[in-house]
Amino acid sequence: MKKIIFAGLATLALLLTARAQETHFSAGHLAVLRAGDGTFDLTLRQAPVFVDQYDLDGPNAAPSFTVSIPTNGPHSFFFNGHAGTEGLLTRSADHRVLAFAGYGGVDLLKVSGTAARLDIQRGFTTVDRDGRLQTVLYPSDTGTAKVNARGVATDGTNNFWGCGNSLGTFYFNPDQLKEPARFDNFLNCRSFRIINGVLYGSINSADAFAGDQPPGIYNFLPADLPRATNTFPNLFLAAGDSYQKITTFDLNLAGDTAYVADTKAGIQKYVKAGGAWKFAYNFAIPQNIPPAENTGTGCFGLVVDFSKPSPVIYATTTEGYGGSVNSNRVVRVVDAGATSPVTTLIQAPSANVAFRGIDFTPY
User: Fold this and answer.
1) 145 falls in which pLDDT band (50, 70, 90)?
2) Backbone torsion region of residue 341, taken as left when φ is above 0, otherwise alpha when ψ lies between -120 and 50, otherwise beta
3) What's the burial of 354, exposed, middle or buried (CB within 10 Å: 0-12/13-18/19+)?
4) Residue 76 CB: number of other CB atoms within 10 A?
5) Torsion sign (Cα): 172, 227, 80, 357
6) Angle CA(6)–CA(8)–CA(12) in degrees, nearest 5?
């Protein structure tokens, strides 16, 4: 831990609390879900949460706009910043809100321990352009099972698809249902994303073993946006044999180019030709932390701008000290081929800060 380099307390405070003149999210920026304020110990497994706005081109010294998520009172909400699976961020299908999953209805650390093992309500929070929050909670109702709230996707009209482990994958509309409709045939999921009106989900090797399904990206039958408990998963893209520690992904609208985040390997590109997916290449992530002290060498959150002549990939990395993701980065890759450089846009300043999910800002 002594090898962590700090730029000084003043710089740390600037990074975490700086505000430009902006009072809302601006279109065409990055939104990054952050766990930790630089002083709160992430190893306590309950962390204060923030959504930060950054410039797409960077490098960024500080966010230009930040939304702080309440961690005390009736609207409290948080996730486990120490967990390797929690903290994904998605933008709604209508681009109006950001959404992430976690735990709420109780003050931060009122009940200490790993939130996924505690009798705390699960839920999701949405954040709109002006930083307004809406939190939806539901009873966990999972007995003694350890259920991580990993992420959520929404169409923006109060329909939510939650992803997690151990009965943690479901559809929920709080206006229409008393409790989530859990997917009996897809019990474990790393991430959900709605692309071109279709819900896709990913599972990695651990999920695959638990559910007897191949790791990769799935869509669902019989509906593009499933709502029934007897929904069936359909393997859309199988993960390569060397790249099965996947978290999230992104697809172009044509459905023939995919990028996948792997927590150990980096970012993989797949292309579809002749009706079959083929692995193209992997972007390995250059590391700043000595290998003997490093937690992970890949990526967690990921989003891609497919509107450019060469797709531009943005991702959060998984390195960290002490068995946790921390002191990590937001990186960018302009995909001009297998040797495209990986550029650091944002560097977390502390072992008590972790960048987790990432997407584009709402508007």
Assistant:
1) low
2) beta
3) buried
4) 18
5) negative
6) 85
Integer Cα distance of 176 and 158 in angstroms = 10
Model confidence at 2, pLDDT cuts 50, 70, 90, reads very low
246's enclosing H/E stretch is strand 246-251
Asked whether the beta carbons of 205 and 188 are under 8 A apart, the reply is no
The CA-atom distances, in angstroms, between 318 and each of 52, 150, 238, 245, 246 are 18, 15, 23, 12, 12
Class assignment of domain 9-360?
mainly beta
Strand-pairing partners, residue 232, are 221
Residues 219-270 pLDDT 10s:
999 999 999 999 999 999 999 999 999 999 999 999 999 999 999 999 999 9
Q: Give domain limits for the chain.
A: 9-360
CA distances from 253 to 94, 142, 257, 304 (A): 15, 36, 9, 11
334 burial via Cβ count (<10 Å: 0-12, 13-18, 19+): middle
For residue range 179-193, what is the model confidence (pLDDT) as tens digits? 999 999 998 999 999
Question: Which residue(s) pair with 138 in the sheet?
Answer: 122
Chain position carrying tokens 């943690």 = 168
Q: Which residue has the tokens 């949405």?
A: 126
- Structure tokens given for 317: 């990395």
